[in-house]
Design brief:
- The chain has four helices and 24 strands.
- It has 327 residues and is mainly β.
- Strands 1-2-3-4 form a four-stranded antiparallel β-sheet. Strands 5-6-7-8 form a four-stranded antiparallel β-sheet, with no helix packed on it. It has a four-stranded antiparallel β-sheet with strand order 9-10-11-12, with no helix packed on it.
Length: 327
Protein backbone atom coordinates (compact mmCIF):
# COMPACT_ATOMS: atom_id res chain seq x y z
CA UNK A 1 0.00 0.00 0.00
CA UNK A 2 1.37 3.44 -0.94
CA UNK A 3 1.99 6.27 1.54
CA UNK A 4 -0.85 8.27 -0.05
CA UNK A 5 -3.31 5.37 0.38
CA UNK A 6 -2.24 4.83 4.00
CA UNK A 7 -2.64 8.54 4.73
CA UNK A 8 -6.12 8.52 3.18
CA UNK A 9 -7.16 5.62 5.42
CA UNK A 10 -5.79 7.35 8.54
CA UNK A 11 -7.53 10.63 7.74
CA UNK A 12 -10.85 8.93 7.02
CA UNK A 13 -11.01 7.05 10.34
CA UNK A 14 -12.11 10.07 12.47
CA UNK A 15 -14.88 10.74 9.94
CA UNK A 16 -16.07 7.13 10.12
CA UNK A 17 -16.00 7.18 13.91
CA UNK A 18 -18.04 10.38 14.01
CA UNK A 19 -20.60 8.98 11.61
CA UNK A 20 -20.83 5.69 13.53
CA UNK A 21 -21.71 7.47 16.77
CA UNK A 22 -25.05 8.49 15.21
CA UNK A 23 -25.73 5.08 13.65
CA UNK A 24 -28.83 3.32 15.03
CA UNK A 25 -29.33 -0.37 14.36
CA UNK A 26 -33.08 -0.02 14.83
CA UNK A 27 -33.15 2.21 11.75
CA UNK A 28 -30.00 1.59 9.72
CA UNK A 29 -29.31 -2.16 10.06
CA UNK A 30 -30.09 -4.10 6.89
CA UNK A 31 -28.84 -7.14 5.06
CA UNK A 32 -26.63 -9.91 6.37
CA UNK A 33 -24.34 -9.34 9.38
CA UNK A 34 -21.61 -11.30 11.12
CA UNK A 35 -22.71 -12.35 14.61
CA UNK A 36 -19.72 -12.81 16.92
CA UNK A 37 -19.53 -15.28 19.81
CA UNK A 38 -20.18 -12.45 22.30
CA UNK A 39 -23.51 -11.63 20.66
CA UNK A 40 -22.34 -8.45 18.91
CA UNK A 41 -22.86 -7.85 15.20
CA UNK A 42 -20.72 -6.47 12.40
CA UNK A 43 -22.98 -4.70 9.89
CA UNK A 44 -22.03 -3.36 6.49
CA UNK A 45 -22.93 0.28 5.85
CA UNK A 46 -22.44 0.70 2.08
CA UNK A 47 -23.15 4.44 2.04
CA UNK A 48 -20.12 4.97 4.28
CA UNK A 49 -18.08 2.03 2.92
CA UNK A 50 -17.67 0.88 6.49
CA UNK A 51 -18.37 -1.96 8.88
CA UNK A 52 -20.29 -0.96 12.01
CA UNK A 53 -19.59 -3.04 15.14
CA UNK A 54 -22.82 -2.98 17.16
CA UNK A 55 -23.73 -4.57 20.48
CA UNK A 56 -27.39 -5.03 21.58
CA UNK A 57 -26.54 -3.78 25.09
CA UNK A 58 -23.87 -1.16 24.37
CA UNK A 59 -24.81 0.18 20.96
CA UNK A 60 -22.04 1.10 18.50
CA UNK A 61 -18.67 -0.23 19.66
CA UNK A 62 -16.61 0.92 16.71
CA UNK A 63 -16.19 1.07 12.97
CA UNK A 64 -13.70 -0.01 10.35
CA UNK A 65 -13.32 0.52 6.59
CA UNK A 66 -15.00 -2.08 4.38
CA UNK A 67 -13.14 -3.32 1.31
CA UNK A 68 -14.46 -3.21 -2.22
CA UNK A 69 -14.27 -6.22 -4.51
CA UNK A 70 -13.48 -6.01 -8.22
CA UNK A 71 -16.74 -6.53 -10.21
CA UNK A 72 -14.89 -9.02 -12.39
CA UNK A 73 -14.66 -11.29 -9.35
CA UNK A 74 -18.43 -11.38 -8.87
CA UNK A 75 -20.59 -14.35 -9.90
CA UNK A 76 -20.72 -14.49 -13.67
CA UNK A 77 -17.17 -13.23 -14.14
CA UNK A 78 -14.64 -14.91 -16.37
CA UNK A 79 -12.97 -18.07 -15.24
CA UNK A 80 -16.13 -20.06 -14.53
CA UNK A 81 -15.69 -23.79 -14.95
CA UNK A 82 -17.14 -25.57 -17.95
CA UNK A 83 -20.43 -27.30 -17.21
CA UNK A 84 -20.21 -31.08 -17.21
CA UNK A 85 -23.16 -33.24 -18.37
CA UNK A 86 -24.05 -34.37 -14.84
CA UNK A 87 -24.24 -30.79 -13.55
CA UNK A 88 -26.18 -29.65 -16.60
CA UNK A 89 -28.79 -32.33 -15.93
CA UNK A 90 -28.96 -31.29 -12.26
CA UNK A 91 -29.39 -27.64 -13.27
CA UNK A 92 -32.34 -28.53 -15.46
CA UNK A 93 -33.82 -30.74 -12.75
CA UNK A 94 -33.74 -27.90 -10.19
CA UNK A 95 -34.93 -25.28 -12.70
CA UNK A 96 -31.78 -23.18 -12.47
CA UNK A 97 -30.91 -20.66 -15.16
CA UNK A 98 -27.54 -19.95 -16.63
CA UNK A 99 -25.00 -17.85 -14.74
CA UNK A 100 -25.58 -14.09 -14.84
CA UNK A 101 -23.82 -12.24 -17.62
CA UNK A 102 -20.64 -10.43 -16.72
CA UNK A 103 -21.82 -7.48 -18.81
CA UNK A 104 -24.51 -6.74 -16.20
CA UNK A 105 -21.90 -6.54 -13.43
CA UNK A 106 -19.35 -4.24 -14.98
CA UNK A 107 -18.91 -0.70 -13.79
CA UNK A 108 -20.40 -1.01 -10.31
CA UNK A 109 -18.99 -1.26 -6.82
CA UNK A 110 -19.14 -4.68 -5.21
CA UNK A 111 -19.14 -4.96 -1.43
CA UNK A 112 -18.47 -8.16 0.53
CA UNK A 113 -21.32 -10.67 0.75
CA UNK A 114 -19.97 -12.45 3.85
CA UNK A 115 -17.32 -11.56 6.42
CA UNK A 116 -15.90 -12.78 9.74
CA UNK A 117 -13.36 -11.58 12.32
CA UNK A 118 -10.39 -13.62 13.56
CA UNK A 119 -8.55 -13.49 16.88
CA UNK A 120 -6.19 -10.77 15.52
CA UNK A 121 -9.16 -8.56 14.65
CA UNK A 122 -8.49 -9.10 10.97
CA UNK A 123 -11.56 -9.26 8.76
CA UNK A 124 -11.90 -12.04 6.20
CA UNK A 125 -14.39 -10.87 3.59
CA UNK A 126 -15.64 -12.51 0.42
CA UNK A 127 -17.79 -11.71 -2.58
CA UNK A 128 -18.23 -13.81 -5.65
CA UNK A 129 -14.96 -15.66 -6.21
CA UNK A 130 -12.74 -13.32 -4.20
CA UNK A 131 -11.56 -13.71 -0.59
CA UNK A 132 -9.57 -10.93 1.07
CA UNK A 133 -7.93 -10.51 4.46
CA UNK A 134 -8.21 -6.94 5.76
CA UNK A 135 -6.58 -5.37 8.81
CA UNK A 136 -8.47 -2.98 11.17
CA UNK A 137 -7.23 0.00 9.11
CA UNK A 138 -8.87 -1.35 5.97
CA UNK A 139 -5.65 -2.44 4.27
CA UNK A 140 -5.97 -5.60 2.17
CA UNK A 141 -3.25 -7.99 3.32
CA UNK A 142 -4.01 -11.03 1.18
CA UNK A 143 -6.26 -11.79 -1.74
CA UNK A 144 -7.27 -15.22 -3.01
CA UNK A 145 -9.48 -16.49 -5.82
CA UNK A 146 -12.11 -18.93 -4.58
CA UNK A 147 -13.06 -22.09 -6.43
CA UNK A 148 -16.63 -20.88 -7.07
CA UNK A 149 -18.95 -18.02 -6.05
CA UNK A 150 -19.59 -17.80 -2.32
CA UNK A 151 -22.86 -18.73 -0.59
CA UNK A 152 -21.94 -19.05 3.11
CA UNK A 153 -18.99 -18.38 5.42
CA UNK A 154 -18.75 -19.84 8.96
CA UNK A 155 -16.00 -19.22 11.52
CA UNK A 156 -14.60 -21.97 13.75
CA UNK A 157 -11.69 -21.92 16.20
CA UNK A 158 -8.93 -22.90 13.78
CA UNK A 159 -10.21 -21.28 10.60
CA UNK A 160 -13.40 -20.91 8.60
CA UNK A 161 -15.59 -22.82 6.19
CA UNK A 162 -16.87 -21.56 2.83
CA UNK A 163 -19.92 -23.07 1.14
CA UNK A 164 -20.14 -22.35 -2.57
CA UNK A 165 -23.08 -21.40 -4.77
CA UNK A 166 -23.20 -24.62 -6.77
CA UNK A 167 -25.90 -27.09 -7.76
CA UNK A 168 -24.27 -29.84 -5.73
CA UNK A 169 -22.73 -29.30 -2.27
CA UNK A 170 -19.18 -27.90 -2.40
CA UNK A 171 -17.47 -26.80 0.83
CA UNK A 172 -13.90 -25.90 1.74
CA UNK A 173 -12.18 -25.19 5.04
CA UNK A 174 -9.48 -22.50 5.22
CA UNK A 175 -6.85 -21.90 7.88
CA UNK A 176 -5.98 -18.45 9.21
CA UNK A 177 -3.39 -18.01 6.46
CA UNK A 178 -6.16 -18.22 3.88
CA UNK A 179 -5.04 -21.62 2.64
CA UNK A 180 -7.61 -24.35 1.86
CA UNK A 181 -6.96 -27.36 4.12
CA UNK A 182 -10.01 -29.54 3.50
CA UNK A 183 -12.59 -30.01 0.71
CA UNK A 184 -16.02 -31.63 0.56
CA UNK A 185 -17.34 -31.91 -2.96
CA UNK A 186 -20.08 -33.90 -4.65
CA UNK A 187 -19.98 -34.94 -8.30
CA UNK A 188 -20.51 -32.02 -10.67
CA UNK A 189 -19.44 -28.40 -10.26
CA UNK A 190 -22.00 -26.31 -12.14
CA UNK A 191 -22.86 -22.96 -10.58
CA UNK A 192 -26.29 -22.03 -9.26
CA UNK A 193 -28.10 -18.71 -9.59
CA UNK A 194 -29.25 -18.99 -5.96
CA UNK A 195 -27.73 -20.55 -2.81
CA UNK A 196 -29.15 -24.08 -2.70
CA UNK A 197 -27.12 -25.38 0.25
CA UNK A 198 -26.26 -23.77 3.59
CA UNK A 199 -23.81 -24.43 6.44
CA UNK A 200 -24.14 -23.54 10.12
CA UNK A 201 -22.09 -24.14 13.31
CA UNK A 202 -23.08 -27.19 15.35
CA UNK A 203 -22.08 -25.68 18.70
CA UNK A 204 -19.17 -28.11 19.14
CA UNK A 205 -16.61 -26.70 16.73
CA UNK A 206 -17.94 -28.39 13.60
CA UNK A 207 -20.51 -27.47 10.97
CA UNK A 208 -23.72 -28.89 9.59
CA UNK A 209 -24.79 -28.93 5.96
CA UNK A 210 -28.41 -28.43 4.88
CA UNK A 211 -29.15 -29.38 1.28
CA UNK A 212 -31.95 -27.81 -0.73
CA UNK A 213 -35.19 -28.02 1.32
CA UNK A 214 -34.09 -30.97 3.43
CA UNK A 215 -35.04 -30.90 7.13
CA UNK A 216 -32.06 -33.09 8.01
CA UNK A 217 -28.41 -32.11 8.42
CA UNK A 218 -25.13 -33.68 7.36
CA UNK A 219 -22.14 -33.20 9.72
CA UNK A 220 -19.16 -32.16 7.59
CA UNK A 221 -15.58 -31.19 8.29
CA UNK A 222 -12.26 -32.88 9.01
CA UNK A 223 -12.87 -35.85 11.31
CA UNK A 224 -16.66 -35.62 11.19
CA UNK A 225 -18.69 -38.82 11.23
CA UNK A 226 -20.56 -39.81 8.13
CA UNK A 227 -24.32 -39.89 8.32
CA UNK A 228 -27.39 -37.72 8.70
CA UNK A 229 -29.08 -36.00 11.62
CA UNK A 230 -32.83 -36.45 11.26
CA UNK A 231 -35.61 -34.59 13.04
CA UNK A 232 -39.17 -35.48 13.87
CA UNK A 233 -42.12 -33.18 13.35
CA UNK A 234 -45.31 -33.92 15.32
CA UNK A 235 -44.02 -37.43 15.95
CA UNK A 236 -43.16 -38.22 12.33
CA UNK A 237 -39.96 -37.83 10.32
CA UNK A 238 -39.75 -34.27 8.97
CA UNK A 239 -40.07 -34.35 5.19
CA UNK A 240 -38.19 -32.04 2.79
CA UNK A 241 -39.70 -28.69 1.80
CA UNK A 242 -39.47 -26.51 -1.27
CA UNK A 243 -36.66 -23.96 -1.23
CA UNK A 244 -38.57 -21.37 -3.25
CA UNK A 245 -37.27 -19.13 -6.04
CA UNK A 246 -34.70 -17.44 -3.79
CA UNK A 247 -32.96 -20.66 -2.82
CA UNK A 248 -32.31 -21.75 0.75
CA UNK A 249 -32.24 -18.99 3.38
CA UNK A 250 -29.30 -18.56 5.81
CA UNK A 251 -29.31 -20.45 9.13
CA UNK A 252 -27.89 -19.55 12.55
CA UNK A 253 -26.92 -21.48 15.68
CA UNK A 254 -28.76 -20.65 18.92
CA UNK A 255 -26.59 -21.49 21.95
CA UNK A 256 -29.38 -20.96 24.51
CA UNK A 257 -31.39 -23.78 22.89
CA UNK A 258 -28.55 -25.84 21.40
CA UNK A 259 -30.52 -25.52 18.21
CA UNK A 260 -30.23 -24.47 14.59
CA UNK A 261 -32.67 -21.77 13.47
CA UNK A 262 -33.87 -21.60 9.88
CA UNK A 263 -36.52 -19.70 7.94
CA UNK A 264 -39.06 -20.82 5.36
CA UNK A 265 -42.14 -19.15 3.95
CA UNK A 266 -45.26 -20.23 5.83
CA UNK A 267 -46.74 -21.59 2.61
CA UNK A 268 -43.65 -23.80 2.13
CA UNK A 269 -43.55 -24.91 5.77
CA UNK A 270 -46.97 -26.59 5.52
CA UNK A 271 -47.68 -26.04 9.22
CA UNK A 272 -50.82 -24.98 11.05
CA UNK A 273 -49.67 -21.39 11.50
CA UNK A 274 -52.11 -18.50 11.94
CA UNK A 275 -51.90 -16.73 8.59
CA UNK A 276 -50.20 -19.10 6.20
CA UNK A 277 -48.32 -16.06 4.87
CA UNK A 278 -45.04 -14.42 5.71
CA UNK A 279 -42.09 -16.21 7.32
CA UNK A 280 -42.02 -19.26 9.58
CA UNK A 281 -39.14 -19.86 12.01
CA UNK A 282 -37.97 -23.47 12.37
CA UNK A 283 -36.08 -24.51 15.51
CA UNK A 284 -34.07 -27.72 15.07
CA UNK A 285 -33.32 -28.99 18.59
CA UNK A 286 -30.04 -30.87 18.27
CA UNK A 287 -30.37 -32.51 21.69
CA UNK A 288 -33.95 -33.71 21.15
CA UNK A 289 -34.02 -34.45 17.44
CA UNK A 290 -37.21 -32.43 16.94
CA UNK A 291 -38.14 -29.45 14.80
CA UNK A 292 -40.60 -26.87 16.14
CA UNK A 293 -42.24 -23.99 14.29
CA UNK A 294 -43.34 -20.46 15.03
CA UNK A 295 -44.95 -17.78 12.91
CA UNK A 296 -42.66 -14.74 12.90
CA UNK A 297 -45.25 -12.19 11.86
CA UNK A 298 -42.63 -10.88 9.42
CA UNK A 299 -42.95 -10.48 5.68
CA UNK A 300 -40.60 -12.06 3.16
CA UNK A 301 -37.50 -9.95 2.72
CA UNK A 302 -36.59 -10.04 6.41
CA UNK A 303 -33.28 -11.84 6.88
CA UNK A 304 -32.30 -14.08 9.79
CA UNK A 305 -28.87 -12.86 10.97
CA UNK A 306 -28.37 -14.17 14.51
CA UNK A 307 -29.70 -15.38 17.84
CA UNK A 308 -29.67 -13.49 21.13
CA UNK A 309 -31.00 -14.17 24.62
CA UNK A 310 -34.22 -12.49 23.46
CA UNK A 311 -34.71 -14.68 20.41
CA UNK A 312 -33.99 -14.88 16.68
CA UNK A 313 -32.71 -11.59 15.23
CA UNK A 314 -33.85 -10.41 11.78
CA UNK A 315 -32.83 -7.43 9.70
CA UNK A 316 -35.60 -5.61 7.85
CA UNK A 317 -35.40 -4.96 4.10
CA UNK A 318 -36.01 -1.23 4.60
CA UNK A 319 -33.69 -1.02 7.63
CA UNK A 320 -34.06 -1.94 11.28
CA UNK A 321 -34.14 -5.06 13.44
CA UNK A 322 -36.85 -7.43 14.65
CA UNK A 323 -36.60 -10.13 17.33
CA UNK A 324 -38.79 -13.25 17.35
CA UNK A 325 -38.97 -15.60 20.39
CA UNK A 326 -37.49 -19.03 19.70
CA UNK A 327 -40.00 -21.95 19.92
Amino acid sequence: MSFRTSLTVLLSLPVLLGQASSWEAGVRARGWAYCDVDGSFLFLEPSRQAFIHWDPGQGVRGTRPAPLVDPRDSPGGEGAEAEDPYSAAARLLYGEGRRPSRRDREGRRVFPERWILDARDHCWAAAGRTLVEVDPMGRILTRRELAAPLADMVRVADGFFVCYRTLNPFIQKFDWRGEPVWTYRRKGSALSDQPLHRIVPDGRGGILLAELGSLSFTPVGPGSREGQIYFTRDGSLAEPLSTGRGGRAPMVYCSTRNAVLAVFSESEARTELPSGKGLALACFRLDRGTVEWRSTGLTEGHLLIGASVSGAVFSAPSGGLATVPVP
